[in-house]
Amino acid sequence: MSRFARLAFTDTVRRVQQQEGTRPRNHGDLGAAVGLDPDPLGERESEFIGERDGFYLATVGETGWPYVQFRGGPEGFVHVLDEHTLGYADVRGNREYITNGNLRTDGRAALFFMDYSRRSRLKLFGRTETRWPEDDPELTDSVCRVRTEGRVERVVLIRGEGFDWNCPKHIPRRYTERELAPTRERLSRLESENSELRSRLRALGADPDELRGDERSGG
């Protein structure tokens, strides 16, 4: 059992799992020594996070209500600093500061990293820490090598506690502009070639539309 499971599978969650038949009734105890240490990020997790251009960040405020915010930037703006630590430069947004305010009350956070084109999802529990750029210029320079555009207000560190991969069952397929670029370039090239061929046919006295009609009719 992973650290993620120990944190996520509370007593109530395990009872529901047993009621729904996803956990044997004699396996209710997680074990005294299982999942006590943070799950280290492996090569797969580090590479996956480094390829993302955004993630979802969930926090809880002092009222007990959860809040989810999307953080976006260029691929690699979330830096894997070591096997337990993520960091990114937090830039000025709409200036509501709900997430940052929540983290001052409770530094725990949940993160979702999504790859819609491959239908993959990485969930991560972590504890956050805020560093000010003027107080730690070396760290700031490190996370600013790749960052979201805008004024950097703080550096956010996330000490990972546990992570888990989800199944792709209900993840819709979506593609980024970068992923679609080769297909669009190929389509543009084919359209240009088609236009050139039509021009050549007209120069020879043929009507491309008539030829197309002959093909459709089987003539």
TrEMBL record:
Q: Which Gene3D superfamilies match?
A: Electron Transport, Fmn-binding Protein, Chain A
Record field: compositional bias (Basic and acidic residues): 209-219
Q: Where is the Pyridoxamine 5'-phosphate oxidase N-terminal domain?
A: 46-147
- Region entry Disordered, spans: 16-37, 191-219
What protein am I looking at? Pyridoxamine 5'-phosphate oxidase N-terminal domain-containing protein
Q: Give the source species.
A: Actinopolyspora saharensis
From which lineage does this chain's organism come?
A: Bacteria, Bacillati, Actinomycetota, Actinomycetes, Actinopolysporales
